[in-house]
Amino acid sequence: MTLYVWLKLFHLLGVVVFLFAHGVSGGASFAIGRAVEPDTRRLLRISQVSAMFANPGLLVILVTGLWMAWLGNFWSRGWPWAAVAILVVTIAFMFYVARPYYAAREAKSDDVLAATLSRVQPRAAAIVGAVALVVLVTLMVVKPF
What is the C-alpha separation between 24 and 85, in angstroms, rounded? Predict the structure, then answer.
């Protein structure tokens, strides 16, 4: 097998790890809601622990994707640049949307936790993430330009 095929294998494995672990975090964000419940802090912790797997998965995706674009001489085409731009914008948006969750993890009182959770937007994150994922997969498979 060629290096490119091995990179593609690890790229796809990174996608699987990222989507599975990040899906746990996304599911927790929908389960948390905006009210403080008995399980709220546990769900926040589960979301935090899932990032220990999602973030390395994303790193594998980035490294192998950039490497494959270099090996395949794709940087002269537009789709790899579009994919990188979409990924950067999506990551920035997700950090913005996730800020209340980060603050909620640090909240000492239930009042502060409730105030922090009043700013969460799990639907916006899910919609943007799903659209970005569909566009990125389309770019990778179709290589339109």
Answer: 25
Rounded Cα–Cα distance for residues 24 and 47 (Å): 7
pLDDT at 85 over 90: yes
* Terminal Cα-to-Cα distance of the chain (whole angstroms): 27
pLDDT digits (tens, 9 = 90+) for 6-20: 999 999 999 999 999
- Tokens 């797997």 belong to 53
